[in-house]
Amino acid sequence: MPGSDPHAEVSPRDALARLLDGVQTLFREHLALAKIELKDDLRRAGRDLLLGAAGLPPLLVGYLLLMVALALLIALALPGWIAFALMALLNLLVGGALTKIYGEKARREKIALPRTDALEARGTDRARSGEPMTAERNEPLRH
Fold this sequence. Notes:
The chain is an all-alpha fold and 143 residues long. The chain is built from 4 helices and no strands. The chain has one domain. The longest helix is centred in the N-terminal third of the chain and has 42 residues.
């Protein structure tokens, strides 16, 4: 068979066409995988956020009752309005500090796409090895 020799000469034009096809497929699959990962991450984050938010109403009520109890305790030594003003000031300071710290942390954090990064690393390793790539699933080209 004339086309079965794996070391047969391939014209530069055919080689370039295969290379371009492989690169296009690599980018297309890379973007598709990134899109799927991002959608999965957002769906999971939304579900976790919703389930976490279910505990907020009782937590808020308990917190408010605790703050009122502390203000009433302080009111035994100081006038009531000063006791409640101190508790409000304390809550504003702590809440502002937490918002600032965790807001900056959230801005610095990047969304990771582990499967996409692994695919990219695998493609880079193959490109370094000099193996030609097929258009399907970035596997080495078989002649």
